[in-house]
Amino acid sequence: MTTYKSRIITVSIDRDWREVYDFASIPENFQRWAAGLGRRFERSGEEWTAEDPDGRLIRIRFSRPNELGVLDHIVFAEGKETRNAVRVVPNGTGAEVMFVLLRTPDMTEETFAADAEAVQRDLNTLKAMLER
Prior knowledge:
With 132 residues, the protein is of the alpha+beta class. The chain has a single domain (6-131), classed as START domain (Alpha-D-Glucose-1,6-Bisphosphate, Chain A, domain 4, 2-Layer Sandwich), CATH 3.30.530.20. Helix content is 28%, strand content 40%. The chain is built from 3 helices and 7 strands. The radius of gyration is 14 Å and the shape is globular. It starts with a strand and ends with a helix. InterPro entries: START-like_dom_sf.
């Protein structure tokens, strides 16, 4: 069994957790706040296609709408898949959004740190959008 180094990246949002989930769970909205995931999202059956930040075509499969705040998604790119665990949970009268970042064997420490910074930027963008 193999486990990877992980980092949980979070942001608190001063808005009801269900409203945060309702907005963030719509795949079309990801391109508005998750620049690290991609742009030009288009539905393709049960999956979505998009361009990653480097302009490469990717496929994305999002978790189905649910009552638990689960925003997991799998990214298929260049012959590999990356599973991303994301949760929206209540935090007082607001929300906490959590992203679990895993350092896979092909990632350097520098790449892992850069990915963590990109995820934090994306979560901060989501926060700014929803607290307006």
